[in-house]
Amino acid sequence: MREAPKDEVSANARLLERGGFVYKTMAGVYDYLPLGFRVLDKIRQIIREEMNVIEGQEVFLTALQPKDRWEKTGRWQELGKEIMYQFKDHSGREIGIASTHEEALAQIALHSIYSYKDLPLYIYQIQTKFRDELRAKSGLIRGREFLMKDLYSFHTDEKDLDRYYWVVDKAYKKIFKRCGLEVYVAEASGGAFTKEFTHEYQVLSEAGEDVIFYCAKCRYAQNREITVLKEGDKCPKCEGEIKTAKSIEVGNIFKLGTKYSQGMGLTYSDKEGNKKLVVMGSYGIGLGRLMAAVAEIHHDEKGIIWPETVTPFLVHLIEFKNLKKQAEKLYQKLLAKGIAVLYDDRDDKTAGEKFADADLIGIPLRTVISEKTLAKKGIEIKERHSTKSKIINPIEFIKRLVTRTHLKNPFPL
Predict the structure, then answer these.
(1) DSSP 169-220
(2) Can you name the CATH fold of 11-297?
(3) Which class would CATH give 315-406?
(4) Tens digits of per-residue pLDDT, 222-261?
(5) Which residue spans within 67-189 are E strands per DSSP?
(6) Which end of the chain is more exposed for a tag (fewer CB within 10 A), N or C?
(7) pLDDT of 261-319, one tens digit each?
């Protein structure tokens, strides 16, 4: 799109819609188009890899949930007033559309956990959630339908939960770093999920809906909702200066304790044969929100600048003046080496239009084949974050792409 959507304020919404990554169906509900789905899939794979490293087992649970399941923990009324979509089907049965899955997985675990030998257990899924947000806004940051990774852990006691809680913390930090984000781990309220303090993973951004008080020196942080800190205070951890900023919450972790196992009757037998309640934890990451945060942090006035780890394509190939034969040859060579390429072979667009689209879409490497580059027996390459370009031999270009993971800067300009 040439112009940004008039009803969008946040950079992520304007850029992702303009660039053809998402389509807005209604407030808080976005369709992922081919470019956006590729980014989403990259994020999903990063999350899946890190969850598997910490022994998570992947499942896929239903969105439709019976009322009686939620009544056992007292959350049918509670969540119904806040965020859960609830309705009656044609038979008159009351059903909720899952906004989270603590109850569902605790009930399933009744058929998997019997003794201490079955614990600990770590189960995760990447699934669509539905929440009746009163003010869905900020593009993909706050939605009514969104993709979430939720991990649930089951333990014999609080000590083992605490151990795994910080294992997940390390995995989360790896995930966000791999996606190109720096996060502050902020202490926060548990809301409707737990009375315990929880931890949120916050990215500093003016587009954020949260406000955190933080220390840049030791990275200690608290959410505004629970803090007694004030801007300019000394950090309680390191004596550094406390600052405040708006932020985007991209993930959270909760110590649930026995709230849900008690409601569902989830117990195990210890070594002496005594029945005890299973202790639980819950850990979430919103994939669309994470994608939005990357767009908010990595962009300029021309468009998005995707980190290589989550970019939809690595190379944006542009050809000019009926040089399809030469461009097609390079395109096929790149594909043969397993390099993801977006090939702009449109005949009805000017050079300026093609360059503008390339900047908007934000793929890391722009590659141009023109009469000028062919005269120099090369191709022009430009990194999205740079204003400089250079001519390079195509064979050398492919070689550097293939070995780029072993080089700090494969394309020094």
Answers:
(1) HHHHHHHHHHTT---EEEEE--TTT-SS-EEEEEEE-TT-SEEEEEETTT-E
(2) BirA Bifunctional Protein; domain 2 (3.30.930)
(3) alpha beta
(4) 999 999 999 999 999 999 999 999 999 999 999 999 999 9
(5) 85-88, 94-97, 121-130, 145-155, 184-188
(6) N
(7) 999 999 999 999 999 999 999 999 999 999 999 999 999 999 999 999 999 999 999 99
